[in-house]
Amino acid sequence: MAEVSAEARIEAPAAKVWAQLTDFTSYGRWNATHTGFPEGGPEPLETGATFTENMKLMGFPAEVAWTVEELEAERVLAIKGKGPMSVTVATRYSLTPADGATKVRIDGEFTGAAVSLMAGKLKDSATAALDESLRRLAGLVT
Prior knowledge:
The chain is an alpha+beta fold.
């Protein structure tokens, strides 16, 4: 298993950050690993909704079939998916209001046999992508 996380304070209210985070039509403007939604994002966005995302991590393209596992408006979006080579991916976005700004944390987890072969590189690449994603997200909402 490989676990990654990143956190940033974004100088915007949680409602504004949440609106951008859940606007799947503009996901590619901030999410550093996203390359497309072949059938669009989850519609409607609700627990149990499914969607497919094309991604690129460590230079490799991957398709992940996601399910929304937890959803609390302006607070939590947690998704879990199946990727290539039987890899399971989980991503959790947590928003915490902080004096007119928002603390945004992204936690990711990769599990599966293929992960153990490249856990170190995967952690480094995914952490860099999360940091870049938070930087871009902040730029869109501030």
